[in-house]
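Listing S7. Sequence submitted for prediction.
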Amino acid sequence: MARSPVRLAFTVTVLVGVILAAVHTSAQQPATPGARVEVPPPPFSDGIFPCSNCHNKTMPPNRTRRVLRDFHTDIDLKHDAEHRWCLDCHDAENRDQLHLASGEPVPFEESYRLCGQCHGEKYRDWRAGVHGRRVGQWNGQKQYLLCVHCHSPHQPHFKAMAPVAAPRPPIRRQP
């Protein structure tokens, strides 16, 4: 059965539109889960990085779960503290990096991969630009903030905030 030229043109137009939409959508999707994402440097406290300055070969890792009393006394672990310990995330052999549950080393600039192991929904939303902050071109290069730019990795929940009144609208002056 022969198709009319109008119907053929319509079918081709729809097909081209679907292909272009798919290409556009795939260009907008964040990189594959294993691919590196452009992020600013992690917000380290002054004087603590690189960790190997103190945690070197002469300081063997102490894997005992405990309250830190000698150094890092400002860290109060409230991130699944019943089950977690520093070396669950920080690499014992190379303190200048983290590690995944598989043992794969991860640089601090890719800490989102570590967080994403347990916080899959947040990681998915972060990659899509729904959770956290993402800046850049709507159809091009994007830069994400790491989880640790907003959340403390040791106490990730935001502290409760007191409610405040809504801001007042500006006074409009007549010309």
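Caption to Listing S7: primary sequence and predicted structure tokens for the chain studied. Residues 5-28 form the longest helix (24 residues). The radius of gyration is 24 Å.
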